[in-house]
Amino acid sequence: MTPEPDAVPTRHRLRAARVLRVEEDRCQVWNRGEVSWVGFAPMFPTPRVERVSPGHLVAVGSGPNGQEAVVWRWFDAVVLGTDPDGLVRLWEPARGQVLAHPRASYVAQEPGSRAYASAGLPGADWWVAGSADVPEDVVDVELDDVHALYAGNDLWPQVFPPA
């Protein structure tokens, strides 16, 4: 089927949700007072039970037909301090200490506070985003960058195949 000349491509919506429980093919998430089970995108690395934990923040993508899938996750990390070069030193339970580049929206936090960190977005090995101590619907994480990564690499059709 050929798209209409004036057709506007569907923008997949992303929302943030906190992980409550994890199974290999899906996880239970909490968002705006609602609890639901959401499957993982096919390219999400396995074993998932070892990569996603309760407390992590995930990006849940919605497809044109209303189907949802977890497409990204942020680690809940402890801020250890900011180095003189501006990098933020974090402790993440599965990796130990990491140095993260602050996102433009990052507000410096006191040592011992918690922030969301991510690995894999272009520009740095690790990024530190918003505080993990705020509600998931107002946490300041890079949902637009995750969307751009999926759109720029034509990953959305793999997550939500056309009917």
Task: Give an account of the 3D structure.
- This protein has 163 residues and is mainly β.
- The protein has 2 domains: 13-74 and 140-156, Nucleic acid-binding proteins (OB fold (Dihydrolipoamide Acetyltransferase, E2P), Beta Barrel), CATH 2.40.50.140; 76-131, OB fold (Dihydrolipoamide Acetyltransferase, E2P) (Beta Barrel).
- Helices cover 9% and strands 42% of the residues.
- Strands 1, 2, 3, 4, 5, 6, 7, 8 and 9 form a 9-stranded mixed β-sheet that branches.
- Strand 1 (13-22) and strand 2 (26-31) form a beta hairpin.
- It is globular and about 50 Å long.
CATH superfamily heading of the largest domain: Nucleic acid-binding proteins
Helix fraction bin: under 10%
For the residues shown, what is the average pLDDT? 88
Low-confidence stretches: 1-9
User: What's the story with the biggest beta sheet?
Assistant: 9 strands, mixed
The ordered string of helix (H) and strand (E) elements is EEEEEEEEEHH
Second rung of CATH, namely the architecture of the largest domain: Beta Barrel
Structural class category: mainly beta
Query: What is the domain tally?
Result: 2
